[in-house]
Amino acid sequence: MEKSRVLRGCNHLLHQANISVTLKQLLVIMRLVFICALLVLSVSFGEALKCNLCVSEGDSCVPSTQTCPSYMDACGSVLYISPPLGITRSCMNMATCQSYLHMPNVAAICCSTDLCN
């Protein structure tokens, strides 16, 4: 369909609703609606959280990077203090990560910014 034909159709509908706009005004309104829709989509599809990822026995590990799925909203580092020593760094659910804070012989860090663990 031609752009001018679509605009005339929209203008016809507006006139039936007793709304008077020129084709130029209608084009401006349509552009604004389109820009607003793009802004809403860009906010709702923001980048996913990125966390360090490693699991090891002992007190150190060489991390890689992990992109978190949408249901995991935190980066966590969990150090198991009692033997055997171990460390885990990964994406986690914040509630799960915070549950480690209350466990004996475990040190945990929970955060929600990229690569904060």
From TrEMBL:
Pfam family membership, one? Toxin_TOLIP
Transmembrane is among the record's keywords: yes
Q: Which UniProt keywords apply?
A: Membrane, Transmembrane, Transmembrane helix
Q: Does the keyword Membrane apply?
A: yes
According to the entry, every stretch annotated as the Snake toxin/toxin-like domain falls at 49-117
Spell out the protein name for this chain: Snake toxin/toxin-like domain-containing protein
Cross-referenced InterPro entries: Snake_toxin-like_sf, Toxin/TOLIP
Name the residues that span the membrane.
Answer: 21-45
